[in-house]
Task: structure prediction
Amino acid sequence: MNTALLYHLLDVDPADGPAELLHRARGSRHLPHLVLSALAREDVRMGEPARAELRRARARADRYAGLALDLARSTGVRAIHGLPLAGYYPTDLLRPQAALDLVAPGEAALWQAVVRLVTDHPVETIDVTLLGDRPHHTAVTVRWPAEDPLLDPWYRVRLATAALPGDCATVPVRPYLVADDHVECLIALAEAQLRHGRNSGAGEPPVAPDPLTLLDLSCLTDQPFEPAETAAVLAAYRLAPEAAALLDLAAPLLPLGTLAAVRTALTPELAPERRRRAEAATTPRLPVRHGTLLRRTVIRHTWDEARLLGAGDSHEGGALLLTPVADFLLGAPDASPTHADRSTALDALHHWDTHC
Result:
């Protein structure tokens, strides 16, 4: 991987120079860090502001790696997607990480990790989402300011009890991710295509992946993929169409290496998966409930899990989610609660505080 590939993927004429390459990269919140590190490894001239931005970005990446290691040892959560992919980059090239993604073996481990983060860092926002009804999976995102809160992306750690959430419609939640490391990274890239609506269902036009995805893929092309086995694993995780579409779009832009044979092996898996999705489209969508923060709380160290409480008859279908670190009003992701909803929920919380 070199700056020539970056010029190509960002559609910049090399004659326009590194300043234009960096300017184009700033259309993404994190891609400038990769460009800066690529320019630094080729000894391109840069001033102190650029060097300082790169230093902060490297410190951010190191902090994510340290967090992942610490939380793995103390709670059993493990990193997926971004941090493992960063391990396949050259050591002097910085892979951008919008967030640290962690999967927990269960709800108790998830909340233990959240408590550690809230205790050890100046967390300012906590978001929670429940996937499914009974039982459900929990996803939590915590954020806190970067060293320079105006210039740098904030720290963001996403934790979930499901490794692959699917699309809540035709691809189900898959709680566990178990494969060789490089295969897991390919699965993560395919899942991201699904999550961002870049799937390749019948009749859908292909949507080009973002440059970072292509760079990630370029770091995997010399890994020892076994074509038939890899295709079977992708099919088992219901991601054959996304993986095939990603490789098809990448093929004109970069050499696929060992992934070329994987693309060939995926072909027989596409039609069966599309049939499964067509059948699944006739069934109800997986319910998704998003939590609106009502209040932060003193940490409830004795709680292993969150508690669901009704929020009162006046809030149809509403519920309170009491967690070890904060309390939330649950509702549809695209519907903000009204003032009356919040008032009812806060009254219910007051009642719970008084009588429980």
Observations:
- The first helix runs from residue 3 to 9.
